[in-house]
User: What shape does this take?
Amino acid sequence: MAILNILRYPDPRLRRIAQPVTEVDGGVRALIENMAETMYNAPGIGLAAIQVEVPRRIIVIDVAEHRDELQVFINPRIVEHGGIQIMEEGCLSVPGIFEPVERARRILVRALDQDGREFEREAEGLLAVCIAHEIDHLDGKVFVDYLSRLKQSRIRKKLEKQEKLAM
Ligand code: GNR
Ligand code: NI
Assistant: This one.
């Protein structure tokens, strides 16, 4: 197992479109293990492969209080959604920034599990937000894209400054 490097906004590699997984093989399962370890270590409630420099459609999530309910979604698609909710979001690729974002209240997701089998899961509340946030990453989107241009430029400047100080 390994802790992977998490890309930080505004890194252009976060803008790539992740490609579907064609075969859920040992390499994919090893990546999932490393992604889970990286998410728990961060700590975060979700992680998309694109954040660790792998442009494939793979996400891991754990929103359980005791951090013992890992959920894996490969090639996820939201097939139904309803209602709206506004939740304060953060992102491991945008450290220290928390802003409200509006998303669907409930979703139905179709995906493959780590054995390559298709499944559907209904989600609401924080889990629904987290799945939508991660699928956005797979499409090259980051939650700050939903904020005003002014907030986006403040966030970009703040993170670029931190990046310089860390060098
Ligand atoms: O750890 C995370 N917390 C979080 C809080 C509210 C809404 C979404 C998230 S996802 C984030 C981890 C992350 O950046 N995943 O891409
Ligand atoms: Ni994120």
About this structure: The longest helix spans residues 149-166. The mean pLDDT is 97. Helices lie at 26-41, 125-138, 149-166. The beta strands are 46-48, 58-61, 71-89, 99-112, 118-124.
